[in-house]
Amino acid sequence: MTPPVFYELKSAVVGIAGLGGLGSNVAEALVRMKIGKLILVDFDRVEASNLNRQKYFYDQIGRWKVDATIENLLRIWPEAQLEGHKVRLTPETVQSIFASADVIAECFDRADQKQMIVETVLSKMPDKVIVSVSGLAGWGASNEIVTRPINNRLILVGDSVSGTGPGIPMTAARVGVAAYHQANAIVEVLMDLKHGQLSRGAQ
Amino acid sequence: MSWTLKINGTPQTFEPSEQPATLADLLKQLQMDKAAVVAEVDGQVVPREHFAQTVLRDGQSIELIRFVGGG
């Protein structure tokens, strides 16, 4: 097996809330970088309509996303440490399921669910960092998707305005741009936490 | 007397007739859906169910993080 990219992140724990277009891509990137352990949470099954942007395969339609994700990630790296939960997250379960996480990735679809988890982490989980996404629908305009720290515990990815709606589809490439911003921000936060510094990324 | 509230880092002036009494009033004025906003007042997160009871004052610093759907 190839060595981890980041030896110092072997013991990191990342929680992934939602395994749709964001979560399925973020999880894959983190496993390829061999980052510690992932806690994967989703209450849904794979549908045909998901395949336009989510990292699943035609023969996985109908399966729980948690099971399909774990199957795919273990094909990349059989020793990956993965913990799956088939539940709908609430303010209570966010706190219990992600208690051991260093960083939480908000990968939900609905705006009110994004609000719920960010509010819960900021107000009730004072030792956690959350990387959230708002504004990734449509296509093109790659450079309008940005990563910006809102405070020292919340990093926001996206263009902040492009919600889904009639005539505004979610597309594989633009969702992927946002998901990889998110995964990249998570690596940066983990490295900052590990080294106890606020400096960010490659200089 | 007019108020200045710093909203997402930008100072905004509110004349007496338009001063929002509460955080919920401010969101209404800004036409923001409270179900999709995380709010901080002077660095403290205000849970969504407390927006209507959170009284605002001149000089406060307010961070409003608005979420749109998609993921």
Quick summary of this structure?
The complex is a heterodimer of chains A (203) and B (71). Chain A is α/β, with parallel strands linked by helices. Chain A has 5 helices and 7 strands.
What's the topology here?
The complex is a heterodimer of chains A (203) and B (71).
Chain A: E1 13-17, H1 21-32, E2 37-41, H2 65-76, E3 81-85, H3 91-97, E4 103-106, H4 111-124, E5 129-133, E6 146-151, E7 154-158, H5 172-195
Parallel strand pairs in A: 1-2, 1-4, 2-3, 4-5, 5-7
Antiparallel strand pairs in A: 6-7
Helix pairs in contact in A: 1-2, 1-5
Chain B: E1 3-7, E2 10-14, H1 23-29, E3 37-41, E4 44-46, E5 61-66
Parallel strand pairs in B: 1-5
Antiparallel strand pairs in B: 1-2, 3-4, 3-5
Architecture overview:
The complex is a heterodimer of chains A (203) and B (71). Chain A is an alpha/beta fold and 203 residues long. Chain A has one domain: Rossmann fold. Chain A contains five helices and seven strands; from the N terminus they run E-H-E-H-E-H-E-H-E-E-E-H. Chain A has helices at residues 21-32, 65-76, 91-97, 111-124, 172-195; strands at residues 13-17, 37-41, 81-85, 103-106, 129-133, 146-151, 154-158. Chain A has a seven-stranded mixed beta sheet, sandwiched between helices. The model of chain A is unreliable at 198-203 (pLDDT under 50). Chain B has a five-stranded mixed beta sheet, with no helix packed on it. Chain B is globular and about 45 Å long. At the A-B interface, helix 1, helix 4 and strand 7 of A face strand 3 and strand 5 of B.
